[in-house]
Design goal:
Blueprint lengths: L7 H7 L3 E2 L15 E2 L5 H10 L8 H9 L13 E9 L3 E3 L4 E3 L2 E8 L2 H9 L13 H5 L3 E2 L4 E2 L12
Antiparallel strand pairs: 1-2, 3-6, 4-5, 7-8
Amino acid sequence: MFKRFPEANQTLAGLGVLDDDAMAIDTSSEQDLRIRVPATSLVAFLRWYESGKQREVETWREFYEEMLRPGLVPAEIFPHLMMRHLRQHRTPIRWSDHFQCWELLLAEIVEPILTPEQRDALEETKSVSGDHLLWAGEALIRSTGYDKTRHERVAKISETSCWIL
């Protein structure tokens, strides 16, 4: 989830943008761009987002928070991580039964450009068990975690995860 920079607060307030409180806001999620935008400001907001100004445009922080800080991969192998931007995925405006509001979901789809050492370090995480890391194949991703061969849900995978395929 990209974050907005403090200087964006005035711009977004002028558009009537509010934090999305459908999910608890804590120190890890504050300043996220999971927000509520009035319909009358949606086009202006999307223009602001597309400009890349006053917000994160890189994915390094997310990688750090999810993989480096918990120690899943060694920091010395990942002093940086290069990413190739593949595309942007944007849903049509649709009703969310879950959140009981209209929503537009927008994601930047990226691909890591790994050194051989980085690839090996990530491969080693396949032996790590836990709730925060899952290596999933295409079939499991497309079924949002339902294993058809075992006839049971084996993981909780978001419907948006298939966008990376």
